[in-house]
Structure formats: C-alpha cells, structure tokens
Amino acid sequence: MKMNPDLPSITVVGAGLAGCEAAWQIARRGVRVTLVEMRPEKNTPAHRTASFAELVCSNSLGADVLTSPGGILKAELDALGSLILACAHASRIPAGRALAVDRDHFSSCVTRTLTEDPLVAIERREVRSIPEGPAIIATGPLTSGSMAGALSKLVGEDFLSFFDAVSPVVTAGSIDMSRAFRGGRYGVGDDYINCPMSRVEYEAFQEALSLAERAPRHDFEKDDRFFEGCLPVEVIASRGADTLRFGPLRPVGLEDPLTGERAWAVVQLRQENSEGTLFNLVGFQTNLKWPEQERVFRMIPALQNAEIVRFGVMHRNIYVNAPRVLDPFLRIRGRENLFLAGQITGVEGYIESTAMGAAAALNAVALLQGLGMPSWPRETAIGSLLNHLSDPQPRFFQPMNVNLGLFPPLPERIKKKTERCERHARRSSEAMKVFLDNLPPLLKNIPTKQISSENCG
C-alpha cells in the first residue's frame, strides 16, 4: 500500500529502540512517518547487522515484575501498546524474573513489523544535518560524527557530552545519618552530606577499591584520553595510599560535629534531584563491575546499608544536558518541532530509551495535529523520567535509569523496597489509566494486529 505524499508526516532519525518505538507510536495514531537509518550505508563500531533495534550490549531488558522500577515502566509501555515490548515478549528466552530475548529474533521482529506497516516509510541513509521538522532525533549513543557535530552547533558545545563518566546514586533514606553529617567546607552552607572515615576504615577501603574487578569496555571505548580530566575513582586509588585523601576524599575544611575533629577522609554526597530523595557520590565516577561497586562502596561507614539506585558507569554515550537544552516535552529549546528521544535525552537503559521514544512520539503527533501537549502524570515512571530531564536542580546533570527515587514520595513510609515498588506500581497504573482515558481521540492508539513469534523469524 502506497502512502499519500500529500498527508502530513513526521521524520524519525535512528532505528534503535527509541526510534522504532517512536515510529510505531506515530503510525498507531494514523500519522505517516519516515524512519531513517544509516546502516548498512554507514555502520558503527558496535553494530553487526542492518536490522532495527539491534541490541549491542546485554540481551536483557531488565526486571519484568512490579516489585522493581523497571517492571513498573514496562507495565506503562504495555498499556501504550509498545512495539519494543511486544517484540521482546514474542522473542523471550528463559531468564528468571528478567525479560531477556533472543537478540536476532527480537531485531527481526521489530524490523519486519515496521517494514510491513503501510504508514511507515523506511529510508537507508545517513542524516548529516538537523532535519526539517516535525522530526524526532533518536540516533543513540553511537550517533555519527556528522550528526553529533550538527547537534553540537545547535545546542552549544558545552551542553553535549560524548562519554558517560558518572558516579553512583543512593537514596537519601538509606544513608546512615548517625555516621554522617551535613555541611559544606569550612562551614559554608549545608548542601552536602559528609561521610567520615577513620584511618583504619579508609585504608581498608582504599585497598579494596584498588583491587576491585573492573568492567570490560568495548574496543571503541578504550581510548583513555577521553577520561584524563575525569579519572575513575579506582584508578586514583591505585596510584598511592593517600591519593584519594588529597583528591575526592580530602577532609580539609570538614570538621565532624560528632567528634569535633577532622576525619582521616570524607566521602561527600551531593543532592541529585529537587525532592532531595537522591544523592550522588562526589568524584566517584567508576568502571567497576556493579557487584564490586556494592561491595566496596558499602565499606563507607555511613553507606553500609545504602540503596544504590544508579551504578557508576564510564562508556561512550552521547547525550545533551537535558535541563538546559530540552523543554518539558523533549523539544530542543527554540525549535518547537524538533524532538529528541532515547539515550540522547539523558536516560540510561533499553526500556528507558524506549519510553522516551514513546513520549516524543505522542508529543510530536500532538504538535502536528494542533493539540495541547500531553501532560504525563508524575506518579508514572514515564512522567518521573521526564521530570528528571527537566529538573533544574542539578548543576551537574547525568543520565539516569528509572528508580524509586525519581517518583513522587508515597503518602506513607514503607521500608521494604518490594512493598514500596508494589505501592508505586498501583499508583502508576491508576494514573496511567486516567491519562490514557483522557487523551484526545487523535492521540489514542489505533488497534493493530497482535505481534507474535511469527514476526520474529
């Protein structure tokens, strides 16, 4: 079936998870979409096929139960009729409570479904400049040099990052404040939470950090020149017994009110969001494996029971400083018909990227149809991620996975994480139903054939 070229359409650049989800959601609203993918005309260092939504890292899309934040996000995407989740379920392989897929069958399912959709036109070419709107740029962490350069000129070089080098994030409620104190250096302000360490505690921590197992990096990420101004904390620790104490753990100007003395070393935590529910470990960008991060960082006395909701990472990932660059609807400020989606917005993870593709799609359709922008409920995981991207609080924006610290607090305090998740899931489900019920008819999902394992051949 040929599309009528006179009908309005939306361009989506990039056929990764976010771009494919965006194209699908646009088409499900009866709007033409042109999906442009540069592969195989131009490949990346990580991809090996020309298929859409190729998973170049893990084949797991994370937890698939409502006792996890990722499960809540998946339930919301299911309610939206997500292509990515439908293909994931159709190509699922055993992985306990996680949603893991046969990566080839999964990509085949996404590719075939979009290729066969009469409202989706596929173009195989590299987009080297910013497209005319309405358009969604979803080029992902391996954005080509030409597009990266065009984006840099558009948003400003200072607001575009090419590598993730971020610290772990913990929930405020899991910090042992009986072993920590608030305050700034030399008594200036109280913006930081300070976690003091004795000499014995520090020396054990420094040794463990130096010897901890590091995560492997892709070949195209192994140029350490990218990290000279932002060394992993384990590298600093390995350079000598006192390098941390003269670096990110320097205790100068931080007198412990519990003892009236200066500690041997101090780990500082900085507020991560406006609600004050999340704090990051200052200067703790790291390339340690995640289990090692839990083991070693919990040697910090005030963090023995810390709930780590975002592990530190160091890898190639192009993303914008979202609070400065994007409006609350994922549009580049000053360009009302140009949206970003996926990891380039400043989210981390397969499903988070997919969710931003869905959100950008509905926003773009609303703009095309002359409707008001959808107001995603804060009680939902999608709404909470969007709020993080527009939160003016952080001076140092860093990408984020979905986690409970992003959600608005519950009216009651629930200590057990699984029970908190279940309560958030119920609230999210209720808010999502109201949101979908109240969408204008032009933004409602048009039912389509069910995606099954037959699409994954």
Please tell me what the overall shape is: globular
Strand proportion, as a percent range, falls in 15-25%
Instruction: Output mean pLDDT.
Output: 89
What's the total number of strands?
18
Task: Give a written overview of the molecule.
The chain is an alpha+beta fold and 457 residues long. The protein has two domains: 9-163 and 316-456, FAD/NAD(P)-binding domain (3-Layer(bba) Sandwich); 169-311, Elongation Factor Tu (Ef-tu), domain 3, CATH 2.40.30. Helix content is 29%, strand content 17%. It contains twelve helices and 18 strands. The strands form five sheets. The chain has a six-stranded antiparallel sheet. A five-stranded parallel sheet has the order 6-2-1-7-18, with helices on one face. A hairpin with a 6-residue loop joins strand 14 (265-271) and strand 15 (278-281). Helix 1 runs parallel beside helix 10, helix 2 (69-79) runs parallel beside helix 10 and helix 2 packs parallel to helix 12 (417-437). It is globular. The model is unreliable at 223-229 (pLDDT under 50).
Provide keyphrases for this structure.
FAD/NAD(P)-binding domain; Elongation Factor Tu (Ef-tu), domain 3; 6-stranded antiparallel sheet; 457 residues; single chain; 17% strand; 12 helices; alpha+beta
